[in-house]
Amino acid sequence: MFNKRVKIKELLSTEPQGQEVTVMGWVRTFRNNQFIALNDGSTNNNLQVVATLGMLNDETQKRITTGASLKVTGNVVASLGKGQKLDLNATSIEILGDCDAAEYPMQQKKHSLEFLREKAHLRFRTNTFGSIFRVRHSLAFAVHKFFNEKDFLYLHTPVITASDAEGAGEMFRVTTLPFDNPPRNEDGTINFKEDFFGKSTNLTVSGQLEGELAATALSDIYTFGPTFRAENSNTTRHLAEFWMIEPEMAFYDIEDNMNLAEEFIKYIIRHAMDNNREDLEFLAQRLAEEEKQLPQDKRSDLGLIEKLEFVLNNAFERITYTEAVNILLESPAYKKKKFQYEVSWGVDLQSEHERYLVEKHFKKPVIVTGYPAAIKAFYMRMNDDGKTVAAMDILAPGIGEIVGGSQREERLDKLVQRMEQMHIPVEEMSWYLDTRRYGTVPHAGFGLGFERMVLFVTGMTNIRDVIPFARTPKTCEF
Ligand code: ATP
Ligand code: MN
Residue 169 pLDDT more than 80? Predict the structure, then answer.
């Protein structure tokens, strides 16, 4: 057996008693021909490997370069140096893979995040990205843990869909038709009957509609999968391929929905705080250093850890869309014409407005409910005023919208009426309407953009840095 090794994170938490262990990892630095800082990605903390003088021949010594991979066996002893509790006194060092120092792009110096985006295949080897992806993992694990503890079923909704009624954004087509000469109907339109599925299909923008089918029988479900939007918005908060968590609950109204969303967000943040403290502290320091470059008024009031603690310890603010519009209209920013986009009842809130509400006005996450029906999706439940729907968006400091959700319209007649008004093909959506025809129930759900959550918890500012390989307009590398 080759791999009988201990991971560095585990080793660093044991007591040095001279015990013999084997570790494997990549060289971060090699000093004085004697001290190797070895990292295996289990933690940002390197293991100090000490090569006793004379144990390495000249040739081996030259091959221990930044990025080279090693298998080291030795004894764990208390460290004489400061900065670490223990050393590994090597009895054998085997080079598993060489790394040409002249060519290797990931030398031990500070690289810009832009540079690392271009080298995304190697950026896992940096402390910053090590921390980000360990936190990302931890948050994903917490998502499943939270819902499992609440007896929700994890539902796998399809990635390829024929339903384009959600209207959440531009869709990516899925086809096997030849793009240079597709079969056509007599009127010149493309004949999708000859396509793989015999109809036009797309990548999903949301699993919600399928989620509703399951929730209206199984009570509580959630999805956690990739979603695709061909929206041409080159922002720091949009990806063309992102992961979304979409719980859907029977017998929930909008208030139950808000309570669940708030509890869920706090739960996964707490999980990361409890399990990824070191990584979060590293990221907090990274953020503080990055913010030193900014003018005073652009810096955050709270450090990353304090921000997360604040969110955990305070109730989210809950306001209606109408109240939000009034706050914006009364704001100094509006009066000084600082907003680029229009503010008036009936117009959707733009990111600048959302960020004003959470960052300047309330200084905490805000749940906005009761949006005008005209700017929201057809399935949202009409309120008694006949003008607004039981929608809820959760806005987070530094991010803007992190959750979009609603109580769903469970009344068949109202739903059909709304679909007709919005030119949604009622016939084609008959399968969806069956949930309202046969034992309809009040139900609700929401979608949380996973990368926006990872952004919030890691304090990173560009969504491209919290997904392993970002897909954005004109970029699809690796
Ligand atoms: P936005 O206004 O920010 O584009 P949206 O209104 O299109 O968001 P929804 O359709 O409600 O968002 O999607 C639910 C959640 O999915 C959002 O709250 C957000 O967290 C996330 N989300 C939406 N679009 C993207 C995207 N392109 N990249 C990453 N996350 C996204
Ligand atoms: Mn959008």
Answer: no
